[in-house]
Specification:
This is RNase H type-1 domain-containing protein. By secondary structure, the protein is an alpha/beta fold. The protein is about 45% helix and about 10% strand. The protein has 14 helices and 6 strands.
Length: about 350
């Protein structure tokens, strides 16, 4: 009963968290009681314990606000002619004319979505031609795109890392002797303080190196930017026949050849356009994404890592943002609100053992 309750009660959080709903207060009281019962059942605490002291999840109102804010940014994924855009402001209405009966509101679900999505500077392409089935890169050239991945298990990590190092060394020696083979190390740096921009780096051996400021994005977005930089530079060389990309983010490598709608879609579209043009230029060309665990500090990839981490640039007053970065910011903001709320003894209780201070 309890594991499925959050999924059921969390349906439509944008409606349930809107203060103008007449039943909002009663609903919050109901779901808070439900969450308290689940927390007492899971932890085995006394029934007289304060709710804040036994909750293993954020308070239900903060959870709804987080889900609501994350959902607001999905307005950016609507097509330019989607009917919902008629009820948004002129900045977000796309190519559709505003609804005749649209009135200026200062509260409500659509107003919140319309306001929050203005913080997103990334342009998403829901109707991108390259994402149509049969036209996608992996539909046409799947046999020319390869992924040299490796899963490192925890049980025998040292042995597998040594084997991976030997494989990478042999691959490097082999491709360095081939004329027409271009290989690059890519990496990104995202300081945890939140005050600095993400840095995307690609080092194309025999072709120079590039370092880009990625503004306020997530680490996978910056990794995707670095992969794009390496591929664009390599495919621009006339004698290029094979490309090897050494990266520690295979998720970003797979996303690079997927032009469908997602955070950093513009980088993926640029990669797909460049590779499709490159593949049709000659026969026998291929690209391989090679996974390099960061902990190896391996030759080619580690040079890109050092080049990325040595530069720190502060965020400007209006940094460019990505879809995932704003959704992550919404989650972190509600997590910080929970931490502040938990400091109140009236919420968590006055008698509580702090495990972090115990020996």
């Amino acid at each position: 009963m309890f594991p499925s309750s959050p999924a059921l009660t969390g349906y439509g959080p944008r409606t349930l968290s809107t203060p103008i709903q007449c039943f909002a207060n009663q609903f919050h009281k109901t779901v808070t009681t439900m969450q308290r019962s689940a927390a007492l059942w899971i932890t085995g605490a006394f029934c007289t314990s304060l709710t804040g002291g036994v909750e293993a999840l954020p308070p239900i109102n903060l959870l709804f606000r987080r889900l609501s804010e994350r959902a607001d940014y999905r307005c950016a994924t609507l097509t330019p002619t989607h009917p919902v855009r008629a009820f948004l402001s002129r900045f977000n209405c796309g190519t559709i004319a505003p609804h005749p009966s649209l009135s200026i509101q200062t509260i409500g679900t659509l107003f919140e979505s319309d306001t929050n999505v203005l913080a997103l500077t990334e342009t998403l392409l829901p109707m991108n031609p390259l994402s149509r089935p049969g036209v996608r890169l992996m539909d046409r050239f799947a046999d020319q795109v390869h992924f040299d991945d490796c899963k490192i298990s925890r049980s025998d990590a040292n042995k597998e890392l040594k084997q991976r190092t030997k494989h990478l060394d042999k691959l490097r020696d082999k491709i360095s002797e081939n004329i027409g083979t271009y290989y690059a190390g890519t990496d990104a740096s995202l300081p945890l303080s939140g005050r600095y921009q993400a840095i995307a780096v690609s080092i194309l051996f025999s072709g120079g190196r590039a370092r880009h400021l990625a503004d306020k994005v997530t680490a996978p977005d910056a990794e995707l930017y670095a992969i794009r930089s390496a591929i664009i530079n390599a495919t621009s060389c006339d004698d290029c026949m094979d490309i090897f990309i050494f990266t520690d983010s295979m998720a970003s490598a797979h996303r690079a050849v997927d032009p469908s709608i997602h955070s950093g879609q513009g980088h993926s579209v640029a990669v797909c356009e460049a590779l499709q043009t490159w593949f049709t230029r000659k026969d026998g060309q291929s690209i391989t994404f090679v996974y390099v665990p960061l902990r190896l500090l391996w030759d080619l990839h580690y040079k890109a890592h050092e080049y990325a981490t040595e530069l720190k640039v502060a965020l400007g007053p209006r940094p460019a943002t990505s879809f995932d970065s704003l959704r992550m910011q919404a989650a972190l903001s509600r997590g910080a609100s929970w931490n502040v709320l938990f400091q109140d003894p009236k919420y968590r209780g006055r008698v509580r053992i702090d495990i972090s201070d115990s020996d």
